[in-house]
Amino acid sequence: MTEANFVLAAEPRKEEGRRNSRRLRRAGRIPAVVYGDGKPAESISLDVFAAYKFLGNEQVYSNVVTLDLGVRKESVLIRDLQMHPYKDEILHVDFMRVHQGELVTLNVPVHLLNEQNAVGVKMGGGLLHRALTEVEIQAPVGKLPEAIEVDVRELQVGESIHLSNLKVPANVVLVALKHGDDKEVVSIHAPHGAASEEEGAAAE
Questions:
Q1: What is the pLDDT of residues 134-157, one digit of tens each?
Q2: Distance separating alpha carbons of residues 35 and 104, to the nearest angstrom
Q3: CATH topology for the 6-97 domain
Q4: Where are the domains of the chain?
Q5: Exposure pattern of 16-38 as b/e (b: 16+ CB <10 Å)?
Q6: Is the whole model's pTM more than 0.85, yes or no?
Q7: How confident is the model at residue 3 (pLDDT cuts 50, 70, 90)?
Q8: Using an 8 Å Cβ cutoff, are 186 and 128 in contact?
Q9: Distance between CA atoms of residues 188 and 40, nearest Å
Q10: What is the CATH number of domain 103-203?
Q11: Residue 4: pLDDT over 60
Q12: CB neighbours of 48 closer than 8 A, spacing ≥ 6?
């Protein structure tokens, strides 16, 4: 968990609709909206260069962001980025207002530790397979982990790690487990040649 303060400047906007959104983008700004916390939704805009730099940081997606609107500030989480169908272009950003201690649900990345030193890879020649690159969690604002770390050093060929095997911080819940879905996170498979040989031997 980080104590960093993530601040993004924004400006209120009154004009809405596709035509005005296109006009904003031509002027170097990205249309966005802030909603939630029992308040009316508010249309805002972001400077395109500042937004791309800010949103390129993985940490901002699992931390509370402060939107600086000049005369006031809003504490928010980034909920959605609408991307252009085939260009690397952000068309719209959704922010959700939050307050300290509020229980929120979001996706955080899975970071694998000791990938190259995993026993099944280094000693067994196995192939590491990532089944999940992110997991959905539920946690209070202020207690959100930036990522879930998974140490694969002791993982052998043919073994796997599931959600139920993960160590998560206190107050953090893995949403899939709440619904009885113990997803595989990572595993080590035998090399294709070795697998074929084993199958052949079993057939004999």
A1: 999 999 988 889 899 999 999 999
A2: 14
A3: Ribosomal Protein L25; Chain P (2.40.240)
A4: 6-97, 103-203
A5: eeeeebeebbeeebbbbbbebee
A6: no
A7: very low
A8: yes
A9: 49
A10: 2.170.120.20
A11: no
A12: 25, 28, 29, 30, 90
